[in-house]
């Protein structure tokens, strides 16, 4: 999520994972756009209820892996075959089977490092970035549903009553 | 989609229809006819002239099989052996799957538990066929059974094979073979009985007992899967050995068993059974096949790579025979094996959607099943029939006979119990399985 600047949020706090899952469906049905839901642990089916599109992490991982794979093959074939041809163990200087272990290692290494980088960037966790914290209790036992008021046409009071109706224990305003 | 599935009825009785039986019998009869035709052609020498031309290129120095004594019967028995090893593996993989799922206390698999449970019933048939084959045609298939190899100073004395006598001798070999089949089969009978009693009485007592016997099986199988691989396959190439071979064969058996299981689940589902199996279960089975295809490749490559790198003549001869030996007839099966067991399932089952699409799942399963037949084919054929190998009516017929018998056995077992283990303590978890 991109960092919103000067945004005003309405934050509904829930006590129970089943309630928040049900609330997400109800709030969306009443036409309110939800910014994000923050939970202390993963809730099954929450991403579906929020209507998030299918994650593209798999594609990213595949691309990182492919990069590592090609890098390894190019590096080894260039050094062993063209730059400084070498005969090791009586093999041809280009012998594909002996490249496979290193190709595998670099594929895994690039994928792992790439996914860590993706994780840090997509979760706003860079060293200088100040993370959005809607409610500190979401790291403990509460569930927070954040609603960006500027992206919703409904009035603040109307959204507040929708949240209350769907089971929010409290509704706070948060300004960044 | 969590907790929004409607849970369908759990009472499902599989019916082994007369139509299905008729088809299996026809399949079996066609198989017998093909084997008869193939045997007749081989016995009358049709196609043999093609081999004479290539014999000059064959690597005869590395071949240690029943060279001088080849008759068409050798190829017949070699085919019986390939199929026996293959279907024994698939049958015992069912028991393996059950056991580690008990050990891991896996919930999701309880809904499809009856399918792996139906597979090991084929083990006694395989055990009897393999014992009979060994007793009848042991000298044709296993070079080490020849007595003259062990006569010191004799003409046929082979110091390397004589050094292995402590392990490779007929009484010990027979004893081990009987132990494998008896221990695998009876441990399966115990789990099966508990499972059937659980259906009637319920409770968690049977679950914990099954877990105990599952662990006993895993401990026994950890050793016997390796030794069975040495005995049934590796000892054919008596001079050669590989420390990866036990793992490699286990991986092959396991993934072939998983593909069979998945295929049965998908087919039952298409016939309207197994209503409680949802896409998440299929996804998990798909992941299993995907993962263990890669595991197989990893072990296959680990074995190949060390031999390739070290380049020791007594080890490389094994791959030499398959690459260019015997006029190169094993080169195609060798690469078909690698393609169907690695490249094909890897690409077909990579995406999430593919694992949830029954058509792609079936395609991948068939690929893996055909691929692992060729795995055992390339392991067994060069050492037994050498340059007389090939792929003709006798091979097709033998696969048909064994496959029809196996399907018959599994179908019969499926009719003996409710298709879903309805009192399994973790069934509730499986019914709500959602990933």
From TrEMBL, chain A:
This protein's record includes keyword Glycoprotein: no
UniProt cross-references to Pfam families, sorted A to Z: ActD
Transmembrane segments: 57-78, 98-121
Top-level division of the source organism's lineage: Bacteria
Keyword vocabulary terms for this entry: Membrane, Transmembrane, Transmembrane helix
Keyword Cell wall biogenesis/degradation applies: no
Alphabetized InterPro entries for the sequence: ActD
Annotated protein name in UniProt: DUF3341 domain-containing protein
UniProtKB/TrEMBL annotation, chain B:
Keyword Cell division: no
Alphabetical keyword list: Membrane, Transmembrane, Transmembrane helix
Coiled coil region boundaries: none
Superkingdom as given in the UniProt entry: Bacteria
TM stretches of this protein: 24-43, 80-100, 121-142, 173-191, 212-233, 245-268, 288-309, 329-350, 357-374, 394-414
PANTHER family in UniProt: PTHR43044, QUINOL:CYTOCHROME C OXIDOREDUCTASE QUINONE-BINDING SUBUNIT 2
Protein name: Quinol:cytochrome C oxidoreductase
Organism: Fibrella rubiginis
């Amino acid at each position: 999520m991109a960092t919103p600047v000067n945004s005003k949020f309405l934050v509904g706090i829930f006590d129970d994972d089943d309630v928040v899952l049900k609330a997400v469906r109800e709030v969306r049905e009443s036409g309110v756009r939800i910014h994000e839901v923050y939970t202390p642990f993963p809730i099954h089916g929450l991403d579906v209820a929020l209507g998030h599109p299918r994650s593209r992490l798999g594609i990213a991982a595949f691309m990182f892996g492919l990069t590592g794979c090609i890098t390894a093959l190019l590096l080894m074939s260039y050094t062993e075959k063209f730059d400084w041809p070498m005969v090791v163990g009586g093999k041809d200087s280009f012998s594909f089977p002996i490249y496979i272990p290193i190709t595998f290692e670099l594929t895994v290494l690039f994928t792992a490092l790439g996914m860590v980088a993706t994780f840090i960037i997509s979760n706003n966790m860079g060293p200088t970035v100040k993370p959005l914290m809607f409610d500190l209790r979401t790291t403990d036992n509460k569930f927070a549903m954040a609603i960006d008021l500027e992206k919703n046409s409904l009035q603040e009071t109307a959204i507040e009553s929708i949240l209350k109706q769907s089971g929010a224990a409290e509704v706070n305003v948060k300004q960044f | 989609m969590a907790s929004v599935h409607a849970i369908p009825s759990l009472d499902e009785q599989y019916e082994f229809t007369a139509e299905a039986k008729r088809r299996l019998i026809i399949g079996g009869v066609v198989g017998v006819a093909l084997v008869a035709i193939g045997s007749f052609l081989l016995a009358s020498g049709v196609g043999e002239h093609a081999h004479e031309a290539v014999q000059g290129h064959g690597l005869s120095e590395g071949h240690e099989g029943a060279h001088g004594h080849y008759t068409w019967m050798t190829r017949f028995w070699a085919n019986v052996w390939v199929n026996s090893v293959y279907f024994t593996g698939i049958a015992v993989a069912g028991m393996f799957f059950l056991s580690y799922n008990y050990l891991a206390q896996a919930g999701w698999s309880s809904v499809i538990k009856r399918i792996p449970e139906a597979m090991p019933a084929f083990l006694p048939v395989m055990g009897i066929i393999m014992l009979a084959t060994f007793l009848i045609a042991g000298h044709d298939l296993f070079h080490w059974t020849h007595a003259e190899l062990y006569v010191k100073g004799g003409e046929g004395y082979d110091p390397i094979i004589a050094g292995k006598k402590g392990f490779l001798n007929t009484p010990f070999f027979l004893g081990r073979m009987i132990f494998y089949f008896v221990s695998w089969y009876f441990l399966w009978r115990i789990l099966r009985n508990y499972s059937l009693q659980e259906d009637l009485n319920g409770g968690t007592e049977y679950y914990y007992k099954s877990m105990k016997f599952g662990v006993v099986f895993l401990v026994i199988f950890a050793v016997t899967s390796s030794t069975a691989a040495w005995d049934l396959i590796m000892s054919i190439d008596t001079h050669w050995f590989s420390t990866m071979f036990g793992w490699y064969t286990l991986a092959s058996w396991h993934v072939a068993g998983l593909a069979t299981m998945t295929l049965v689940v998908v087919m039952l589902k298409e016939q309207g059974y197994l209503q409680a199996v949802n896409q998440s279960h299929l996804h998990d089975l798909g992941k299993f096949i995907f993962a263990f295809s890669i595991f197989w490749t990893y072990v296959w490559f680990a074995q190949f790579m060390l031999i390739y790198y070290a380049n020791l003549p007594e080890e490389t001869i094994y791959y030499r025979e398959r690459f260019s030996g015997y006029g190169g007839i094993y080169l195609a099966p060798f690469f078909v094996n690698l393609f169907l067991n690695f490249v094909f399932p890897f690409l077909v089952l990579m995406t999430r959607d593919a694992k949830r699409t029954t058509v792609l799942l079936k395609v991948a399963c068939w690929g893996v099943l055909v691929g692992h037949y060729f795995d055992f084919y390339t392991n067994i054929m060069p050492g037994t029939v050498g340059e007389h190998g090939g792929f003709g009516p006798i091979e097709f017929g033998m696969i048909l006979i064994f496959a029809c018998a196996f399907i018959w056995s599994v179908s019969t077992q499926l009719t003996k119990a409710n298709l879903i283990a309805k009192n399994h303590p973790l069934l509730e978890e499986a019914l709500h399985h959602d990933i």
